[in-house]
């Protein structure tokens, strides 16, 4: 499953190329509770078809009604961007299904430039980060490559959104847990690859849409060229495989590097990496293990839920309290049982 941003942009490009009128809506600012974060996008075709989301559904319904009804007015899709606000009053918030006190401000772009959408998607497909700036005064769009993903910004005059290629996951080890985690990662818009040199594991892989890499994990990690939109998760339970992958992964800019295992195995792994591979306590701070957030998971499916939740939190730059970490939570639970 492709990331929702890319899906929205591709849909807008394809519809405009077919001669349809398209509205591109972006969440610019929010106050109070909001169903969707700033930067969320939605493409609306003139016949009412929608891809993406800017709320829980009611705002989309209103936009569909307003801009499909206005389709007969040809000029409606040939004007500068418009700033609209939903949920100013409690009555309106209730009407549009917003949480109590929630307000959402949207920027509406009418028929974005096909040429610029084609260029933008071409650069994203090539793996580039692109800074997209929209001027509200006249709708002028500027695209520029960037090395650092900026936070979404809207100052009342310009909207700046850093867009990038879809998030990627590289899983080391093709066991049952990897299959559950791959399924969840695909569902959350990641492109997924799995590496395992053990033919008996790789031959039984059953999840479609995953790129299978047969080779040594350290080579696979380096060939993968991990970037800030990459997570690397070691699940083989074989130290020879997981350690090789981790050594290469910790040299990369991947936003998440983690490995499965017990607290004892995690401590032994850290000691090996320090003693034999030149790491230190400081350099291993990036290494997550035992991975996942503590939910008392036992089965591969439950563990995958736990791990995917931690990956999404890291992706969204959400701080998780220490109490949610598996090692800390299990230790506290054991202390309570002994007291």
Structure report:
The chain contains eleven helices and 15 strands. The chain has 339 residues and is α/β, with parallel strands linked by helices. The chain has two domains: 4-163, no CATH class; 168-338, NAD(P)-binding Rossmann-like Domain (Rossmann fold, 3-Layer(aba) Sandwich), CATH 3.40.50.720. The longest helix is centred in the C-terminal third of the chain and has 16 residues, at 300-315. The protein is elongated. It comes from Pseudomonas jessenii. Residues 170-311 form the XdhC Rossmann domain. This is Xanthine dehydrogenase accessory factor. InterPro entries: MoCofactor_Util/Proc, XdhC_CoxI, XdhC_Rossmann_dom.
Provide tags for this entry.
339 residues, alpha/beta, Rossmann fold, 2 domains, six-stranded parallel beta sheet, five-stranded antiparallel beta sheet, 11 helices
| Rg (C-alpha, Å) | 23 Å
Helix content: 25-40%
Q: Please tell me the total number of domains.
A: 2
Low-pLDDT residue intervals, each spanning 5 or more residues: none
Main sheet summary: 6 strands, parallel
* Second rung of CATH, namely the architecture of the largest domain: 3-Layer(aba) Sandwich
Strand order, biggest sheet? 12-11-10-13-14-15
> Which topology of the largest domain does CATH recognise?
Rossmann fold
CATH class of the largest domain, anyone? Alpha Beta
| Tally of separate helices | 11
Shape summary? elongated
Portion of residues in beta strands equals 15-25%
* SS elements, strand count: 15
What structural category characterises the helix and strand content?
Answer: alpha/beta
N-to-C SSE string, H for helix and E for strand: HEEEHEHEHEEEEEHEHEHEHEHEHH
How confident overall, as mean pLDDT?
A: 88
CA distance, first residue to last residue: 48 Å
The CATH superfamily name of the largest domain is NAD(P)-binding Rossmann-like Domain
Domain XdhC Rossmann: 170-311
Domain XdhC- CoxI: 15-74
InterPro entries: MoCofactor_Util/Proc, XdhC_CoxI, XdhC_Rossmann_dom
Organism: Pseudomonas jessenii
């Amino acid at each position: 499953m492709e990331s929702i941003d890319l899906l929205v942009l591709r849909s807008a490009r394809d519809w405009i190329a077919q001669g349809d009128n398209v509205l591109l809506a972006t969440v610019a600012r929010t106050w109070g509770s909001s169903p969707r974060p700033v930067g969320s996008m939605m493409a609306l075709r003139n016949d009412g078809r929608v891809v993406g989301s800017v709320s829980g559904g009611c705002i989309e319904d209103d936009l569909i009604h307003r801009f499909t009804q206005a389709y007969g007015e040809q000029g409606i899709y040939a004007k500068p961007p418009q700033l609209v606000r939903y949920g100013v009053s409690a009555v309106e918030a209730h009407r549009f299904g917003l949480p109590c006190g929630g307000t959402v401000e949207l920027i509406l772009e009418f028929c974005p430039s096909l040429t610029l959408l084609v260029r933008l998607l071409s650069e994203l497909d090539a793996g580039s980060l692109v800074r997209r700036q929209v001027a509200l005064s006249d709708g002028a769009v500027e695209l520029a490559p960037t090395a650092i993903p900026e936070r979404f910004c809207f100052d009342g005059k310009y909207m700046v959104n850093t867009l990038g290629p879809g998030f990627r996951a590289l899983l080391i080890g093709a066991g049952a847990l990897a299959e559950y985690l791959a399924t969840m990662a695909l569902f959350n818009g990641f492109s997924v690859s799995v590496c395992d040199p053990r033919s008996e594991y790789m031959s039984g892989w059953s999840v479609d849409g995953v790129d299978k890499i047969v080779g040594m994990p350290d080579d696979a990690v380096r060939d993968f060229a991990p970037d800030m939109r990459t997570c690397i998760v070691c699940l083989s339970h074989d130290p020879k495989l997981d350690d090789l992958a981790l050594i290469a992964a910790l040299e990369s800019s991947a936003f998440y590097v983690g490995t499965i295992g017990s607290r004892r195995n995690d401590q032994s792994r850290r000691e090996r990496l320090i003693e034999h591979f030149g790491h230190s306590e400081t350099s291993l701070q990036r290494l997550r293990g035992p991975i996942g957030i503590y939910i008392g998971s036992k089965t591969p499916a439950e563990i995958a839920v736990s791990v995917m939740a931690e990956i999404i939190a890291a992706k969204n730059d959400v701080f998780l309290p220490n109490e949610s970490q598996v090692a800390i939570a299990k230790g506290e639970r054991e202390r309570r049982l002994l007291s």
